[in-house]
Design brief:
The complex is a heterodimer of chains A (about 290) and B (about 350).
Chain A: E1 2-7, H1 11-23, E2 26-32, H2 39-46, E3 50-52, H3 55-62, E4 68-71, H4 75-85, E5 93-96, E6 104-105, E7 118-120, H5 124-140, E8 144-154, H6 160-164, H7 166-181, E9 186-193, E10 201-209, H8 215-232, E11 238-243, E12 251-259, H9 270-289
Parallel strand pairs in A: 1-2, 1-4, 2-3, 4-5, 5-7, 6-7, 8-9
Antiparallel strand pairs in A: 8-10, 10-12, 11-12
Chain B: E1 7-10, H1 12-19, H2 26-38, E2 43-45, H3 66-75, E3 81-86, H4 93-101, E4 106-112, H5 120-128, E5 132-138, H6 149-160, E6 164-168, H7 176-189, E7 193-197, H8 205-214, E8 219-222, H9 236-245, H10 254-263, H11 282-289, H12 297-306, H13 311-321, H14 329-341
Parallel strand pairs in B: 1-2, 1-8, 2-3, 3-4, 4-5, 5-6, 6-7, 7-8
Helix pairs in contact in B: 2-3, 7-8, 8-9, 11-13, 12-14
Classes of the chains: A alpha/beta (about 290), B alpha/beta (about 350).
Chain lengths: ~290, ~350
């Protein structure tokens, strides 16, 4: 049995802790942050998680007996954490759940075999949309000129780090889209919606084409999308991409709704689920092999 | 802190871009800036309706790049300052860097008021770069409640290092009594520059702005002939006349301002999207009543026509979903489903 460390006891860290528990992959799961008065810290104590507010110093102490480290802090903290522990990682896996650019961009749907030691899970918008963008690009090739992603998430699902990292969120998502799918022109927009009751995570994709889409390609893409839905549903049960008939010339629209499993935050927080579920899914893959 | 005198900030070339689907060209910017400078308008805001970096398929593509728009304006302005609106999530730090390089004088960093903490990174960046930065509470009605949530949001902005805050009535929902309460509470709690940005859905934009000034506001956003999103903004030409009449002095040359108002529609001759006078249609009145973002109007019109829906029904279904500024992409989905339900 393996031991896992989660750094960061914010919304993502705690949701991940619960998903790690449910996965039954790990003997021990340790969770660290720096602020013992935070809401997350209180929750950890209440639930008797193996929690400590010693921060990175605490992490270093138990690093030797751990196999995998999940970083659920912020983009800025991620860089500092990696500086401090990079040399002691050896054969351990490090999964970056912050929107920093450290590590190899991985989308489980696309990267089916090799798992690098330092993994970057991009962002919630990136995890949600890149499988679709990649398949559309495969069908259309150079006829795809530009892609745009607009993600709306419920205000209540966005913690302090998310709010501080809007810029990193955009630049990392755009850079991952370009790197993984080879599309040079992309734009990413993010919105926080304060509505009550909170709204489910929603993503709109706009594909701009050089010419109008023919019926054959449209049904090819439609088929691919239902395939993606089926595959991703195996680890994110309520992932639902939907393609719309073409209404504007040369523009194809796909929307993706992600409803969470309600582990830490209620089900509207699909943006937490997409990234924490991807992390646990990868961990399963790593340890199933061995 | 020493407060500024009454400043008028002209948002015609930014908010007005909503009225023509972001199609304002560099020749319009040039013509406008030359005349606005002559009329001694103190600040001109230029850009896509949703600000820096917002040109997109979801919201609408700008006819020209941010860079060309800003450089054109800067080239034609001397004493008049150039400002930009920036909403983190649409814009990024690179966009601010570009705007600094183009010579922008004032950076107005805004977010839907409930999410004002998303502005902190950009505000800190502006402070580091030593450029003038203001905070903008967009959709301010979302934090206008009995608990005076807006005071907390203003306090947050002040804590980030901002000393000028704009209250933006993006939905056009405020009435003069609301404005009186908001601005007198701000005055009683903080020593900062405050401004008001109105929309005219309920026909009260000018009067709301006057009440704001009477209760301590020292910056007013307005646009020529009220040219702006949805039902339009505070009408600049009326506002200045009324303020002068009430004894508030501005530096603006009224006769030059009237000239500008008269020629402004001609700037749009032979353009892709023609000029039309702003007017609060029943759908705009309803939109305000639901507290919806004024900038939605053009998107709702476009898809209602495409799906052959009654625009009143369309606004109703969007109002019920409580969309906020920035969620223009979902207007399509909601109206698509509305059409297919029928």
């Amino acid at each position: 049995m393996k031991n896992a460390i989660i750094i960061g006891a914010g919304k993502i860290g705690i949701d991940l802790y619960i998903k790690c528990l449910k996965s039954k992959i790990f003997k021990n799961i340790y969770i660290f942050n720096r602020n013992k008065l935070s809401e997350g810290a209180k929750f950890c104590r209440k639930k008797n998680f193996q929690y400590s507010s010693e921060g990175i110093e605490g992490v270093i102490k138990i690093l030797p007996k751990s196999n995998i480290i999940f970083d659920a802090t912020s983009a800025r903290s991620n860089i500092q954490i990696l500086k401090k522990i990079n040399k002691s990682l050896n054969k351990k896996y490090f999964i970056n759940l912050t929107p920093s650019k450290a590590g190899v961009y991985i989308v489980p749907y696309i990267n089916k075999t090799k798992v690098p030691p330092i993994i970057n899970l991009i962002t919630c918008g990136g995890q949600t949309s890149i499988p679709i963008i990649n398949e559309v690009k495969k069908v259309l090739g150079n006829r795809l000129k530009y892609v745009e992603l607009v993600s709306s998430i419920a205000s209540k699902s966005a913690g302090a780090a998310t709010r501080e990292n809007i810029d990193e969120y955009i630049t990392t998502t755009e850079s991952a889209i370009q790197k993984i799918t080879n599309i040079n022109r992309s734009k990413v927009i993010i919105n926080l919606n304060p509505s009550e009751p909170p709204v489910n995570m929603m993503n709109s994709l706009f594909f701009e084409l050089t010419n109008n889409l023919n019926n054959k390609d449209f049904s090819k893409i439609k088929k691919k999308i239902s395939h993606i839905n089926n595959v991703i549903k195996s680890y994110i049960p309520n992932y639902n991409a939907r393609i719309f008939p073409l209404l504007e010339s040369k523009i194809l629209r796909v929307t993706i709704r992600v409803v969470g499993q309600g582990d830490y935050l209620p089900t509207y927080a699909g943006n937490l689920d997409i990234i924490t579920s991807s992390a646990v899914h990868l961990a399963k893959k790593i340890y199933e092999k061995k | 802190m020493k407060k500024n005198k009454l400043l008028i900030s002209d948002v015609t070339l930014r908010d007005g871009n909503h009225a023509v689907n972001h199609s304002i060209t560099s020749d319009i910017i040039k013509k406008y800036c030359i005349r606005a400078e002559e009329a001694k308008i103190e600040i001109i805001e230029v850009g896509h309706g949703n600000g820096l970096g917002a040109s997109s398929l979801a919201i609408g593509r700008s006819a020209i790049t941010d860079k060309l728009a800003l450089l054109t304006a800067k080239k034609n302005l001397k004493k008049t300052k150039l400002s930009v609106h920036s909403i983190p999530g649409f814009s990024r730090i690179d966009d601010l860097e570009l705007a600094i390089d183009c010579g922008v004088d004032i950076f107005r960093i805004g977010a839907n008021a409930t999410e004002i903490d998303t502005t902190s990174t950009q505000i800190k960046f502006c402070i580091k770069k030593k450029v003038e930065v203001w905070g903008v509470l967009m959709m301010a009605h979302l934090v206008y409640d009995k608990k005076k949530e807006y005071l907390k949001k203003i306090k947050y902005l002040i804590d980030q290092g901002v000393n000028t805050v704009i209250i933006m009535d993006s939905a056009g929902i405020f009435l003069p009594k609301d404005i009186k309460e908001i601005f007198s509470n701000i005055k009683n709690n903080f020593n900062i520059n405050t401004g008001f940005h109105g929309h005219n859905n309920f026909g009260s934009a000018v009067w709301n702005s006057v009440v704001a000034v009477q209760n301590g506001a020292n910056i007013i956003d307005a646009s020529i002939k009220g040219f702006g999103a949805g039902a339009g903004n505070t009408q600049l030409d009326i506002l200045i006349t009324v303020l002068e009449k009430l004894g508030f002095s501005t530096k603006i040359d009224l006769s030059k301002l009237y000239d500008l108002a008269k020629v402004f529609p001609n700037f749009f001759k032979n353009k892709k999207i023609p000029y039309r006078n702003p007017y609060s249609e029943p759908k705009n009145i309803m939109s305000a009543n639901y507290g919806l973002f004024s900038g939605f109007a053009s998107k709702v019109d476009f898809y209602s026509e495409k799906f052959m829906l009654n625009d009143i029904d369309a606004f109703k279904s969007i109002g019920e979903r409580k969309l906020v500024a920035g969620q223009e992409d979902l207007i399509f989905n909601i109206l698509y489903d509305l059409k297919n339900k029928k």
